[in-house]
Amino acid sequence: MVKVAKIHRQRSDELLSTVGLHVGQEMLLNVLLTEGEMTQAELANRLEIQPATLTVALKRLEKNGLVVRSRDPQDQRVSRVQPSRKSGELREGVLLAWGRLEHEADWNHFTTEEMLSDPNKGEATNRSVMPLEKQGVIDLMDGETELAPGTTAFPTPGHTAGHMSLFIASNNERALLVGGILGSPMQATETDLHYWPDWDGPMGIKTIKDILDRAGREDSVVIRSHLSYPGWGTMIRWEGRRYWKDL
Q1: Is domain 1-139 in CATH 1.10.10.10, yes or no?
Q2: Which helix (H) or strand (E) holds 176?
Q3: Which residue among 27, 91, 123, 188 is least enclosed by CB atoms within 10 Å?
């Protein structure tokens, strides 16, 4: 277990270094970006770390322009912390790094000898996945990836780690297979509502707005398995608001 944890941490550090962060810093920034400004004591409690440890971490982030610290106007003894604009710009990169780590961890977990030899847990993987892996036709996707002419997978962060959607183009027709980010037609209209399965609420809201705006601009069919039959439709505008319309 110690060896696995060490390998996991090393790989996390490798992926986070692509956005200029170290392990642990991304969690601190995610709390601030999600919950907003708070006192240093509140942040320490939220992260369940010692105040002295947090002080060291904040000094490093402040030096890199990722957080802003100030004195509470009501009590000069209290230090308040808020994320900077620069930290917000890193958020999508952090989510992509987490997603890639999750994908790699899932693959490594489900393809161990122990899992594959289990008659219950390994049956589906042995039947549907491993034959493709042995033929060398499986790749773990990292960022936007063209799967075939006219079919492109692209990141839609905020919902679950590594979440991807598909853009499909054929002649003058367009379709977006949006995976799990759209759970109800109501989300097409009330895009500021938090969707409870999202692991990063603000990023999930931004993603759904971006993809529905794209669907409207490109007149794309939107396909979503969680919606009522047939599960596909288009975005329409009525009295200045966007609505889902079944096809």
Answers
A1: yes
A2: strand 173-177
A3: 123
The backbone torsions φ and ψ at residue 158, rounded to the nearest 5 degrees and listed phi first, read 115, -30
Q: Report the distance separating Cα 47 and Cα 188, nearest Å.
A: 34
CA-to-CA distance for 88 and 83, rounded, in angstroms? 7
Identify the CA nearest to 41 among candidates 33, 25, 52. Answer: 52
DSSP 3-state of 108: helix
Burial 22-57 (b: 16+ CB within 10 A, else e): ebbbbebbbbbbeeeebebeebbeeeeeeeeebeeb
pTM: 0.56
Name the residue ranges covered by the structural domains of the chain.
1-139, 145-246
Give residue 6's pLDDT band: very low, low, confident or very high (50, 70, 90): low
Which strands make up the sheet holding 38-39, listed edge to edge? Answer: 38-39, 75-83, 67-72
Domain 145-246 CATH class label: alpha beta
**Secondary structure of 2-51 as H, E, C letters:** HHHHHHHHHHHHHHHHHHCCCCCHHHHHHHHHHHCCEEHHHHHHHHCCCH
Cis peptide before 230 (omega within 30 of 0): yes
Tokens at 240, concatenated: 């200045």
CA pair distance 54, 25, nearest whole angstrom: 10
List the end-to-end C-alpha distance of the chain, in Å, as a whole number: 51
In one letter, which amino acid is 172? N
Q: Alpha-carbon distance 162 to 80, whole Å?
A: 33
